[in-house]
Amino acid sequence: MIVYQLHISTDDEAQWEDRLALAEPATQVFTRIDAQTLCIEATFPDDITPTILQAAFGGSLKPLIAAVLCDGWEPLPAKIGSRFLVIDSVSPTPETERTLLQMVVGEDVFVGHRHPTTLACLRMMHDLHDEEQLPRDFRCLDVGCGNGLLGITAGLLGANQIDGFDLCEDSINIARTNAARYKIPRTTWKCATLEKFAADHTYALVVANLFSDLLEGSFDSLQSWLAPNGHLIVSGILERFKAPVLEAAQLAGLDVVETRQRGPWVTAWLRHSTIADD
Q1: N or C: which end of the chain has fewer CB within 10 A?
Q2: By CB neighbour count within 10 A (0-12 exposed, 13-18 middle, 19+ buried), where does 170 fall?
Q3: To 5 degrees, how large is the angle CA 266–CA 91–CA 24?
Q4: Are residues 140 and 232 in the same domain?
Q5: Which of 198-202, 224-228, 259-263, 264-268 has the lowest average pLDDT?
Q6: Within 75-210, where are the H helices?
């Protein structure tokens, strides 16, 4: 497989989304480099289409050295803004100035670091930090934490308290292992369901990468865990379920600040309605 890479202006994002829709790559990733620049990485099964794109628009080509990709999942390594690089747990450590996000995984733990929804959450968290939307020393709640990647990344972005929960005991054990590897202080990982989790305080950042039906029925809880000036990032929303999920969020007193879509997956940034209206 061949990866076509190109830096573009943010003003050209929609044009390139249409262009790649016609080119039909196996996967495509748009990563924000700064306020004016995006990096496109599109993966193709052969070099025919990417060679044509390179001849017409510039850019670079490189072979994809990775495990066989699951349908709809993204190739690694994946750049997250200007700060992070996500790699597989078994990959050799590359030479880079970026902070590596390389999580230990477990046999029964969702390997989310290659899924578009997880990477979209990471990019939105990165952008909120760079746009100074997150306060210093903030609290983060990682809902359905899996191996702890999102909560740990919040710690690398300045969170001084990370709580996470998941219904899978193996996930909790792996999250604890990963937090210790990254020396993230003040983390609490609990085995709990959405219905059973009880928060001792509210959070400036809540991240929930869940299935659409779980999200749709959970916004009352999610908004109750959110601090008055806090930010809620939700993902795992298939495009066909976007409208009812976001409607449920609004009924719970949340406003949609921004949505992003890659392939069939939608990620949303939400805030309390009283804050969004200010």
Answers
A1: C
A2: middle
A3: 40
A4: yes
A5: 259-263
A6: 116-130, 149-156, 169-181
CB proximity list for 273: less than 8 A, separation 6 or greater: 250, 253, 254, 255
Cis-peptide into 77, omega within 30 deg? yes
Q: Is there a domain that residue 100 lies in?
A: no
Q: How many structural domains are present in the chain?
A: 2
CATH code where residue 211 lies: 3.40.50.150
Tell me the pLDDT tens digit for each residue of 30-58. 776 667 888 888 888 788 899 999 999 99
Q: Which of 50, 65, 80 is the last residue of a domain?
A: 65
pLDDT for the residue numbered 72: 53
Read off the pLDDT of each residue in 49-75 and give the average, rounded to a whole number.
71
Residue 41: both structure tokens together: 């990485």
Q: Is residue 106 part of a domain?
A: no
Q: Which domain holds residue 46?
A: 2-65
Residues 236 and 117 in one domain: yes
Residue 176, burial from CB neighbour count under 10 angstroms (0-12, 13-18, 19+): middle
Maximum alpha-carbon separation in the chain: 57
- Per-residue buried b or exposed e for 249-274, using 16+ beta carbons within 10 Å of the residue's own CB: beebebbeeeeeebeebbbbbbbbee
